[in-house]
Amino acid sequence: MKNYPFQKIEKKWTSFWIQKKVFQPDLKKAKKPFYNLMMFPYPSAEGLHVGNMYAFTGSDIYGRFMRMRGNDVFEPIGLDGFGIHSENYAIKIGAHPMKQARVTEKNFYRQLLMIGNGFAWDNRLETYDPEYYRWTQWIFTELFRAGLVSRKKSPVNWCPSCKTVLADEQVISGKCERCDSEVVKKDLEQWFFKTTKYAGKLLDNLDKLDWSEKVKIAQRNWIGRSEGALIKFAVVGFKSPISVFTTRPDTILGATYLVLAPESAVIPDLQKKIKNWGEVKKYVEKAEGKSEAERISEERAKTGVELKGVKAINPVNNMEIPVWVSDYVVEGYGTGAIMAVPAYDERDFAFSEKFGLPVVKAPLIPKEQAIKQIKAKKTVEYRLRDWLISRQRYWGPPIPLVYCEHCAEALKRMTPKQAATKGWTKGEIENSGWIPVRAKDLPVVLPYVKNFRPTGSGESPLASLKNFYEAKCPRCGKTGHRETDVSDTFLDSAWYFLRYPSVNDKSLSKRNAFDPKLTKKWLPVDMYLGGAEHAVLHLLYSRFLTMALKDLKHIDFEEPFTVFHAHGLLLKNGAKISKSKGNVINPDDYIKKFGADAFRMHLMFLGPLEEGGDFRDSGIVGITRLLDRVWNFALNFKPGRRTGLSEWLNSSIKKITKNISDLRYNVAISELMVIMNKFSERPDEVTKKDFETFVLLLAPFAPFMTEEIWQKLGNKPSVHLKSWPSFRESAVGSGSFEMVIQVNGRVRDRVEAEAGIDAKEAEKIALGRPKIKTLLKGAKPIRVIFVEGRLINIVA
RNA sequence: GCCCAGGUGGCGGAAUGGUAUACGCGUACGACUCAAAAUCGUAUGGGGUAACUCGUGUGGGUUCAAGUCCCACCCUGGGCACCA
Fold first, then answer.
1. Residue A559 contacts by C-beta under 8 Å, 6 or more apart in sequence?
2. Which of A64-73, A331-340, A349-358 has the highest average model confidence (pLDDT)?
3. How far is the CA of A588 from the C1' of B62 (A)?
4. CB < 7 A to strand B: residues 190-219, chain A
5. Model confidence pLDDT, tens digit, residues A738-767
6. Where are the beta strands (DSSP E) in A98-219?
7. What is the structure's pLDDT at A728?
8. Rounded to whole angstroms, what are the CA distances from A538 to A59, A159, A414?
9. Which residue's CA shows the smallest distance to C1' of B14?
């Protein structure tokens, strides 16, 4: 028994594949394009995490399978190396992110080459490459011009450790998605993408997508659609009413007070009427300073202050009811004001209990009737918020806007309509004075800044560079100042899949973010694989951006990923892998020791890809044993005579094909083991074709060894471009089967029977068995159930 | 609290309502060896000498037949969380 010399063979085929561009499809001429993609990694750590290897291998096996099934598979790779994660890592190790990027890039590509994936290396991209981010900035300006970007002052999430604002999606249970610090609220003016404009479409389209169900559910919950009504409550002695949103207009008779969010603009408006203004002001200020975590830690104990002197009128019965302010009502959802119905709402009930407010169990009215009676307006509300895109950091694409006072002044002298006819864009009119940099002047290059660390002042480090922020207005040419914030990393990754097909054509890249023809041919992505943790981050942002780009007529589809599957989590000895636990697995060590094929197969054998697996060192020998056996079988192979083995192989091909399609690679591998066991038992019955079939079935899992064996068998490389073995759906009914004989549902006997027999014949055989005779003691069967080719059950 | 996913040998995990524990790890014994490793072979859910019997988180139910379907509950993992 010889050990498989993986080092030599891996080296040989790695260079062969690259030289011959085996996995580089002709993007223009491909007949059956299949875009197979795994979420690209962010190179923030020492090297590729074993979790990345796990996911990439899972994706690659699918890609190789689809290639052998006759598709032109495009499997690109790149790095998401721009942004806060890479910058934080650079800070941690005391390097400059611009220099560090080159170091990590080299290491990541080395590792990604090692695992033997069929990547289209010519199309790789890095998000920090100015040739890439010029188009990230271009997308920003396109959305800006179309009125999908707005500058708003609002209470936003601020991470005190990362010293920047964050989007809602990047706050996980009150903590920063990157560094786990508690996030606080700050009132700041920031740039937002209007994701809420697409809330309805983002939700409705989910039904049409072939995605992991849990991810769709997470998105549905995040978007949070509620049908309800807006109800106006007049305020005694005040001109404008207070508008509330409710999903239960039918409970209006039980509405005994109103509650406003502390941030509600209605409160300052009512200042003159509020008799206890000092107390109210104090409460509002305190509530605004609370962090998310603080609000949670208070276990929902209700606090609040009555706005004394303010009375609202319940429109259904004209009762005067008090108005309160409390932080259990949130600004930014509905109108930031509610009607409290303590008899029908738990939270309102708790509040009433605490402050001794009346609980009126009033009769309910049918919803439609209630809406009509109080002249309410039916509406749909979404939980989804706009995407906060500004970051007060260094390592990202500068937001390509210039503020120009002259243009702001000019706009003031026009109505929006007039401005529009004069060629001002929607975004420029909405955000007076802000002018996007023209496409031909992009990219706005990120300058080298020695002191790149975040300042914490609410401004990016770029704000300290006069020669950066001083800029000519793209519209009037007078001196203005640049926006100095950079954009969110998630914007970089929200469109990279659009860029891949177009990336290697350098002449093209100067003109287009994505070539229309190539985009039409290759997109949307046919198979996307990645982590479920991106359910409401990357996956939602990408969907939004794709919809926006479609509406701007840059692409002709609105969903980026036709199929998406989430891979599971890889554990080590039952525990989560983390640096703090010290159980990090370095893939390099394993590949060096066992070879890439063994490492790939070991990872995939742990469990179904979508459920993850538990990595234990002990298990890998099962795979190396298999590979050594295959290798030795190949070395000693002498073609055998054709027998029943070929027939039996048919069902194995069928099983393996089905299990790969379902991403159940663990079961496919076990079936490969079954075949090898059978081959070892009866080596002189294995024909050349049988063995070649096996090699083809093994190829997606062990790309290096199978390539070598394929050549040893006298075939031309590459095995990975050959056709997947075919199979017949139904087994040919020949020979015999083991018939199980049950009595009252219990297995009592087994007998070899002819394949084609019917129920009557089966019954005759069964009743003739001595064991069954004894059991029945002469009793006549009440009923006999026969399952063809499997079993017979005698009910007595 | 709500919403998902899941509880199967010592372990990772298989099982179109039809032979529970495939495949692999581990363990035991045997072969080879001076010996060990590697490799190969055999066995391996519990109880029982055996016939047999009990077994897929718990308790019910449907069915000729339930790990699989239905009802109730327990536990674990994940997500959301004062969204009116």
1. A205, A208, A209, A524, A543, A546
2. A64-73
3. 55
4. 213-214, 217-218
5. 888 888 888 888 888 887 788 888 888 888
6. 125-126, 149-159, 164-166, 171-172, 175-176, 184-193, 210-211
7. 82
8. 18, 20, 40
9. A667
